[in-house]
Automatic annotation (TrEMBL):
Name of protein: non-specific serine/threonine protein kinase
GO molecular function: protein serine/threonine kinase activity
Bias kind Low complexity: ranges: 315-351, 405-427
Keyword vocabulary terms for this entry: ATP-binding, Kinase, Membrane, Nucleotide-binding, Serine/threonine-protein kinase, Transferase, Transmembrane, Transmembrane helix
Composition skew (Basic and acidic residues), residue ranges: 442-477
Keyword Transmembrane: yes
C-alpha cells in the first residue's frame, strides 16, 4: 500500500485506540519510516483534531530522546503521521520479558527519559501519558519518548481537546494532583517517570489494586514501599532516596526533569562521596577561618592573618551589634577587613611607652598621678613630724666646759637645794658620753626610716606597674571587640 505516492506500507507494528502504526519505506528519500494512520472515529468527533495536535506537538521537539516527526498529511480521507522508525522494543515488552532490571541500566534509562521530558517541557509541552509502552528503545539501546497523542501545551490548556472533567492517562502512573482533577504540569510527567523507574527496579508498579479508583486513592494517600525493602539487590541508598523524591505527593517537592537528567547522567545515583565545599575566606563574610595555612593556600597561595571571632560577638547578648552587622554586604566586608587588621595587631603588638600609654588611657594617667601625690604626701608628712635633733646636737657641741668645783659664780649657786640629789663629780662626763652614744643611734634611726620610706615607695611603684600591665593586657584582649564596635558605629554614621 502506497501512501501519498512515497510511503510504502509493509507490516503493522502496533495499534492503539486512535491509530495504527505501520513499518514503511520512504521511496523518495530512501529510508525506513514509521507511519501512523488515524483509525475511523465515528464516536469521537475530536479524534481528527487530537491527531493533528499530536503531529504539531511532536514536530516542535527536536531531541535525540524524542521520536522525531518526518511528515504529516491526508490520504483517502485518512490522516497520517510519518515518524522515525525505532528499531527496538518498548519498555513494557522489556519489563515483561526480563522482569526487574539492574540499577545501572535503570539509571541510564532514567537519564535519557528525563532529558527527553526536559526538552518537551522547554517547548511548553506536557506529555501526560508517560508509561513503559510509550518509552521505546532503539537498536543501540537509546531511549526515545513517543506517542504525544494526549499531550497539552502549557500556554494553551484547552489544546488537549479532552472532555470536561475527564482524567486522561494511565492510572498506574497518574500523579496525585491529576487524580484530584487539577491540570497536568511538568511535575506530573516527573511523577509518572518515577513510577516507571520503580516498576523497572522492583518488577511491579508502586501502587496497584483491583480497580482504577482504588489505585488513584493510593496515589493520593499511600506511601510507596522502599525498593530495598522489597529485596532489590545492589541498589544504592542514594538511588532509592532520589526515586522516592520523584514520587513525592506535593509537585513542588519533586525535582525538575532537567535536574533528574543531570543527576542520573553524572553518576550521583551511585552515592559516591562528593568533595566538601571550600572554606569561606574572611573577606566574604563573618565566617571563622579554621587555620592560617588553609586560608593562605586558598587565596593565591599567600598567607594572611587568621581572624577568630570572639565568643561574645556570637552570643545572643550582642543584640546591639547584630542589627548593624546585617545592614549591607559592603559593611560586612569593611568589618572583615577591620577584624583582619585587629587580628594582625593582636598577633604581636609592641609594648607602648609610658608616655603613649598615659596619653591613650586617661584612667592609667589618673592612677599614676594619684600614686605620685600619695608618695609626696607621705614624704612631706614624715619630714614634718620627724624630731628636730639638729638644735640639740648644736647646743651640746657649743656648750662651754663646766666651771671647777671650787669656783662659784653666785652665792645662790653654792647653796645646795634641799630636794636636789648629790651629783657625783664624773656625772657630766658620763652625760656627754651618753649624748655621744645617742648621736649615732639617732642617725641610724633616720637612715632606717629613709630606707623604710624608700622600700614603701618601691613597693607602691611596683604595684602601680603591675596594675598598669594588667590593664594593658585587658586592653589588648578587648582591642578586637572595641575595633568591631567602632567599625559598626562608623558604618552607621556613613
Amino acid at each position: 500500500m502506497l501512501i501519498a505516492g512515497r510511503y510504502r506500507l509493509s507490516e503493522s507494528i502496533g495499534r492503539g485506540g486512535m491509530g495504527e502504526v505501520w513499518r514503511a519505506y520512504d521511496e523518495t528519500l530512501g529510508r525506513p519510516v514509521a507511519v501512523k494512520l488515524l483509525l475511523p472515529q465515528d464516536t469521537d468527533p475530536t479524534a481528527t483534531s487530537r491527531f493533528r495536535l499530536e503531529a504539531q506537538t511532536a514536530a516542535r521537539i527536536a531531541h535525540p530522546n524524542v521520536v522525531g516527526v518526518r511528515d504529516f498529511g491526508e490520504h483517502e480521507n485518512r490522516l497520517f503521521l510519518v515518524m522515525e522508525l525505532v528499531e527496538g522494543d518498548s519498555l513494557a515488552r522489556v519489563a515483561a520479558q526480563f522482569g526487574a532490571l539492574p540499577a545501572e541500566r535503570v539509571a541510564r534509562i532514567a537519564a535519557e527519559a528525563a532529558a527527553g521530558l526536559a526538552a518537551a517541557h522547554r517547548q511548553g509541552i506536557v506529555h501526560r501519558d508517560i508509561k513503559p509502552g510509550n518509552l521505546l528503545l532503539d537498536a543501540d539501546g537509546t531511549l526515545k519518548i513517543g506517542d504525544f497523542g494526549i499531550a497539552r501545551f502549557l500556554d494553551d490548556p484547552g489544546a488537549a481537546l479532552t472532555a470536561t472533567g475527564q482524567i486522561v492517562g494511565t492510572s498506574l502512573y497518574l500523579a496525585p494532583e491529576r487524580a484530584l482533577g487539577q491540570p497536568a504540569g511538568p511535575a506530573s510527567d516527573v511523577y509518572a517517570l518515577g513510577c516507571v523507574l520503580y516498576q523497572l527496579l522492583t518488577g511491579r508498579p508502586p501502587f496497584h489494586a483491583d480497580t482504577a479508583v482504588a489505585i488513584l486513592h493510593q496515589h493520593l494517600d499511600a506511601v510507596p514501599v522502599p525498593p530495598r525493602e522489597l529485596g532489590v539487590p545492589g541498589l544504592p541508598p542514594a538511588f532509592e532516596s532520589y526515586l522516592l523524591g520523584l514520587l513525592a505527593k506535593d509537585p513542588e517537592h519533586r525535582p525538575a526533569a532537567q535536574q533528574a537528567a543531570d543527576w542520573f547522567a553524572d553518576g550521583a545515583w551511585q552515592g559516591r562521596p562528593e568533595p566538601l565545599p571550600e572554606a569561606t575566606s574572611p573577606s566574604r563574610g563573618p565566617a571563622v577561618v579554621a587555620s592560617a595555612s588553609t586560608a593562605g593556600s586558598q587565596v593565591g597561595g599567600t598567607s594572611s592573618p587568621t581572624t577568630y571571632m570572639l565568643p561574645s560577638a556570637q552570643g545572643p547578648a550582642s543584640t546591639g551589634r547584630s542589627g548593624s552587622r546585617s545592614r549591607s554586604g559592603s559593611d560586612s566586608g569593611s568589618r572583615s577587613q577591620s577584624r583582619s587588621r585587629s587580628g594582625s595587631r593582636a598577633a604581636g603588638p609592641a609594648r607602648p611607652g609610658s608616655l603613649a600609654l598615659l596619653v591613650r588611657r586617661p584612667r592609667v594617667a589618673a592612677t599614676a598621678a594619684a600614686a605620685v601625690l600619695f608618695a609626696a604626701a607621705m614624704l612631706l608628712g614624715m619630714l614634718w613630724f620627724a624630731p628636730d635633733n639638729t638644735a640639740t646636737e648644736g647646743t651640746k657641741s657649743e656648750a662651754p666646759p663646766s666651771p671647777p668645783a671650787s669656783a662659784s659664780t653666785s652665792p645662790a649657786a653654792s647653796i645646795p637645794s634641799p630636794a636636789a640629789s648629790p651629783i657625783p663629780a664624773g656625772a657630766e662626763t658620763d652625760g656627754a658620753l651618753d649624748a655621744e652614744r645617742d648621736e649615732p643611734d639617732e642617725a641610724k634611726l633616720e637612715q632606717e626610716q629613709e630606707q623604710e620610706q624608700a622600700r614603701l615607695e618601691q613597693e607602691r611603684l611596683e604595684q602601680a606597674e603591675r596594675e598598669q600591665e594588667k590593664r594593658e593586657q585587658e586592653r589588648q584582649r578587648a582591642v578586637p571587640q572595641d575595633d568591631d564596635d567602632g567599625d559598626d558605629d562608623g558604618s552607621g554614621d556613613d
